[in-house]
Task: structure prediction
Amino acid sequence: MAPNFADGGRCAGESDGAAPFFAAFFARHPDLFLRLCGEDLARARTRADYPERLARWVAERGVADGRAVLRRFKYYELARITVRELCTDLVPEKDAAVTLGELSFLADALLHRALDIAAADLASRCGPPRWRDEQGGEVVLRFCALGLGKLGSEELNYSSDVDLIYVFESPPPGPALVDGAGGLTPVEYFTRLAQAFGRLVGEITPEGFLYRIDLDLRPEGSRASSWCRWTCWPRTTSSGRRRGSGRHS
Result:
């Protein structure tokens, strides 16, 4: 959509007034400000919109520096959400849940893509998460990040941490695993994946950061390892816990 310069002042005033760092962001990326001026701000994004838009964003810009690409998408979308929220003709106060939903959907998309990038990078260096047992059979294990707390209940706000728990699949009963995945055990492999994902999400760069990750809602709290094992694939259950970052196998 072509920029609507009549709305440019509104976009600049609302976003920069609420969060001055948007001024610096758009000064570095004036093309994104023009893009924001061309948005249909009357329409809320749905859960499905964010991964689709992020996929196009990454395809246009590549993932040579995945950290920067994801962070630019985050701050662009935050600016759009902020302008919508501050304009009561777009999002009336009674519809505040729409903003919380959009912030949660945005986080879901970014976390999922960050896990994709971290998993692909680890697989390129150590191989995919596949092992062989003593009888020569192949064992493929899976990993996911579950969204808890405000992320899990779709009530994320602008300053929220994201409460996550990392879960990986235990090897099935039977012969012991003997090799695979760069010589790493499943625990070692998925610990590296969790660490790489955490750095990609939480590291502060010139383009900002994605989210602060809080792992203290795992069963044993801060005393526990950063991951848990499961013997069957977990299902989404009640409000407050759902798959937030996909699965990898």
Notes: Residues 1-6, 230-244 have pLDDT under 50 and may be disordered. The chain has one domain: 5-248. The chain has eight helices and eight strands.
